[in-house]
Each structure stands twice: as C-alpha cells, then as structure tokens.
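re: ur question from earlier - yeah i can do the single chain one, its not a big deal. heres the input i used so u can compare w yours
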Amino acid sequence: MSTYKATCHCGTVELKIEMPHGLTGLTRCDCSMCRRKGAVMAYTDLDKLQVVKGADKLSLYTFNTHTAKHYFCSVCGIYTHHQRRSNPNHYGINVGCIEGIDPRDFEPVAWGDGVNHSSDKKS
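and the output i got, formated as tokens:
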C-alpha cells in the first residue's frame, strides 16, 4: 500500500491518499469538465482518501447527472479530487497535487472517453 500527501496550490486543503497499487492506471478524460482542467488523474476507493485539513474550504461543483462531484479549494481554485461518475465508489485525484510527483513522468497518459460516456447512452 502506498500513501501519498496531496495539497492544493495554497496549502489550505491537504489530503491523505492510500493507493493499494501505487500510482498506476493514470488517465485523462475528454468530458466537458475534464478537458478544461487537463489534469492527470489517479484513482482510489472512497475510504482510502482522507481530508486532513481544509474540508471547510473545499467547494463542490456538479453538472449534468450530478453523479460526479468535483472538489476544489475555494481559496486558490485548484481541483484536488472528484467522486467519479463512471464508478461512484472511487475518487479521482489530481496527480499534480500529489507532493513529490511530476505528472510528466507518467507520459504518455491514456485518455478516457468522457464525451461518449456509457451513462449517457439511451437504451
């Protein structure tokens, strides 16, 4: 089990993240939200992320189905993590917020197809 510390830009928000397999399976997404933020994301179970400080400074943004919950620091505006739409039992974490990690070290990063999300398909 690997444990990471993540912070927003100003340090107001701090997360403790446990990842059973380390930083693997990193992706980017091309949905309307993710392509604008451009973040490389890692994933972990909901119970593996703890807000150590700044919970009162996290703002929440949802859209469309309101399943995904995107959190960002209300002081500096940095997206730190989100509860995923494709798997609401997981958080996506902004790898750029993890201390000591350079997202460029993981290039190339796979892209997920958020534009044609399976939840949007009509039956």
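The mean pLDDT is 90. not sure if urs matches, ping me
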